[in-house]
Amino acid sequence: MVLCDLRRGFVAAVLICSGMGIEAQAQGVWRGVQRVDSMLTARYRRGNIDSAYIIRPQTKWTVTGRLNVSGSDLENEGREDGEPFRSKVSSDYKSTLSVGVNYLGVTLNVALNPAKILGKYNDFELNLNSYGNRWGFDFIYQNARNFTGWHESGGTRIDLPHDVLSMRSLNVNAYYAFNHRRFSYPAAFTQSYIQRRSAGSFLLAVSGQGQHTETKDVLESVLKVTNIGIGGGYGYNWVPGRRWLLHLSTLPTLIVYSNTSLTVDNERVPLDYHFPEVIITARGAVVRQFGNMFAGATMVYNFTNIGDRDHLSVYNMKWRTRLFFGVRF
Question: Is the whole-model pTM more than 0.90?
Fold first, then answer.
């Protein structure tokens, strides 16, 4: 009996110690989570801002659903043997559905393209953007073949079907906001801030573009473009009421470096720089607050012009629209 009692006592002691060990580990993990939460909260709340104009949401979590639609257009015009010509092609629209979860400024996004899953969209496009009060950027890469359009020359107009033109392009635009204490880009585009009063800011901008375009039809041509632009613009957040925000900004940059080449049927065509060549980025947004919920729409538009109409002028247009609905808690 004494031996049995000793065994039972030993087992009970082991179970108690194991339970205490698990509880201690759980408490340690929880303290670690609390420390991380405190650090993220301090970083999230900290900032050199004028709280009369912009504030952080009081909640920690934000869940946002988005419908994204994007497209691109390419136009050419000029003269060949004294005859004017013009062409325009547009890519298929890209539509994605996405859900983003934000916790104290740390965001995880998941996107789905239904048309690509069904095999109806074969192009590739990557959009990365980061909008801060002080600075931010857009990074857009596209590899597209589904262009359709038309070409007009000598009074004759012909349709251009799919697979005649393919394009790989990269567009980058970065900004710096001088009045970042009162003017907030993220209030309009990521809703990680709330604009309380109307404010605007002068903006410094740097833009870059790279493009490789091939056409395969009666004539085979290859157009290669590398541009870097520097400029500035202005952005304004208008708060017409407590729950509304309207944003509009434009960032024209003058191309200061250009490397362009055109080859037609393996013959190089000289293309000289023609002032002014520009890269323009325009953004707009409408946001409506409903307590801890919000909804709205944003648009980003990129325009590039190179060349001259007497020889060859090329216009690139790239745009993206977004409808969104979010909840903070």
Answer: no
